[in-house]
Structure formats: C-alpha cells, structure tokens
Amino acid sequence: MIWEWIPRNAALILSLLGQHLVLSLVPVIIGLVLAVPLGWLANRSRAARAILIPAAGVLYTVPSLVLFIVLPVILGTRILDPINVVVALAIYTVALLVRSVADALAAVPSLVVAAATAMGFRPGRRFVAVEFPLAVPVLVAGLRVATVSNISLVSVGALIGVGGLGQLFTQGFNNNFPTEVVVGIVLSMVLALFADALLVTLGRFATPWSRVGAGRPA
Length: 218
Prior knowledge:
By secondary structure, this protein is mostly helical.
C-alpha cells in the first residue's frame, strides 16, 4: 500500500464515491416506486402473481454486463451513458422487490385488513394507512438486499467506462497498482454497510409500534 496516494487523489476518490452513490441509489428509488404497485397487484390477483413473480425471477438472472451492453441499443443511448447503468439496476431492483412487496402485503394479518374494511376504509386508504405500514418490516428486508446488490453491481459498469468506484478497480489492475484496488474495495464495503445500517434505522423509525415492549422483561 502506498498511503501517500490517497490524500494526493482525494478529489478523484470523492468524485467517484459520489458517482457510485448516485448510480446505485437512484435505481433503488425508481425500482421501489415501480415495485410497490406491481407487488400490490401480485398480492391481489393470483393471475398477476403467476406472471409477475416468475418474470421478475427471469429478469434477475440476466447478467448485468449483458444489460449494460444491450440497453444502449434499446434506449438509443451511447454505451458510456450512465443512464444505461441506472435503467439496468432499476430493472434488477424491481425484479427483487416485486416478490418482497407481494410477500410483505400477504404477511399483513387478514383480521387487521377485515377490521379496517369494517371501519369504512376503502381499498386505497386501507392500503396507505394500514396494509403498507404493516408491510414495512418485510419490505425493508428486501430493500436492504436490493441496495447492497446495486452498490456491488455499479462496479461492473466500470468495464464499459461508466463512473463509480469500479474505475479504481480497472485502473488499479491495468496499472498494476494495488493501492487503487484496495481503496475501491474498502470504500465499496463501507458504502454498502452504511446504506444497510441507514435502511435498518429508517425501518425502525417507520415502525415505532415494533419497538413497543422491547427490552421489557417477560
């Protein structure tokens, strides 16, 4: 390790870290927005579930590098355009979260749903006020997997010249300079751990009822 290289290239490292953060988290947000209605539909309809869940599984088996290369042809973009990575990872996020959303909604106790219906909650209001909040713990678990997976997959984008910490991997290998590779690996791990811890914290904050009685003796 050549430690002096790190402060000399701090601006480059921070720039790549910022790019990596954007390229990995924007698809999570897009994927979540798309996966919630699809998961709701899969939970409400057996026919929709029979189509959406297997389709999501097939999409997730497509190698990321293949998507990065094929999407420019489909979208009409340049192969070096970061939008290709964002769209590819958004597809992976949807593929992961559709099942998570459907399973999370299915885990909501039927008695609670029936009680809300008896109180006059229409389907839309019942979903927003009752079903979705109770499904948050299961949904957060899927969201954690998707987020950490995206942070890892962004590095693959460096193989087609897209920014992110993966550039430190490729440059380090090409220049036979292990310091760059180690910095890229460490920062990727720190970013993944931080994002995971943040989601756990947000999940606990969003479900205060799950903490009721925590720590009390039985």
